[in-house]
# Entry
Amino acid sequence: MKNPKAAITAVSAYLPDFILNNKLLEEMVDTTDEWILSRTGIAERRILKGEGLGTSDMAMHAVHDLLQKTDTYANEIDLLICATTTPDMQFPATANIITDKCGLTNAFGFDLNAACSGFIYALSTASQFITNGIYKKIIVVGGDKMSSIIDYTDRATCVLFGDGAGAVLLEPNHEGYGIQDFILKSNGSGRVHLHQKAGGSVKPATLDTVMAREHFVYQEGQAVFKFAVKSMADAAEEIMNRNQLTADDIAWLVPHQANKRIIDATANRMGIGSDKIMLNIHKYGNTTNGTIPICLWEWESQINKGDNIILAAFGGGFTWGSVYIKWAY
# Structure
């Protein structure tokens, strides 16, 4: 018997209640609703409020919902991978905290950090355990509390990011549905343009680094934008060519929700019309690892079994890639 494909069999997500819209940001920094919308396509974003709440709390809600909607017992889960840039702690892994909070007593877990590409990296990694016949049920979480590392006095970055988490259940499929192919790439020289200056082993936290506001996202927007436009479009086009897919064959493009202009450029390279793009950046901003699973969750009822779907992402580091999925339900 041929090895099974790793198929997504359910999706779920969690978004905090508090809405930070552009009008509120106008009161916080020197910006305008028109400026933000015209350059990013973002109108509002969700922010996780509450003492002691982190990425694992949003993921916990998404995982609980995933188990409930699939009638899956917590002890049936073999593995949980958490793609995040904002772990609850430096250690232990946020994945381990999620497994504890969700009662996944038989699952081991680990975190994967590839910035905004983390979810597709984690999905591709998890698929190998299914395809090789090692595990039967794997949860992949993508989530970030970006508000925890955003400087709300920096108008260049604070308008971009929001909080949220999504999760998918992966199971074996012997009908040919599921993850068909993936392309993952990175270029570490891009780190100078998008990173967090302090808090790691090179520059541990000190009073000076805190006072210098070096524990927030640092981004050189133009350099990141130029590389992202080309890289994300290249990866999406390459996976189509490698699998002999035309624009007519594609049911949905699910792009990382960083900037509407980057999304439009990727769709144009693929020849995909706006009616085939999952787009919710206007409502949630860039939730980093959460963007793609949140899109799948929002559009779940519109996806049909057998649909050809392309996931595409770009993240700091730089990281980027694409995944080709034949939807399984």
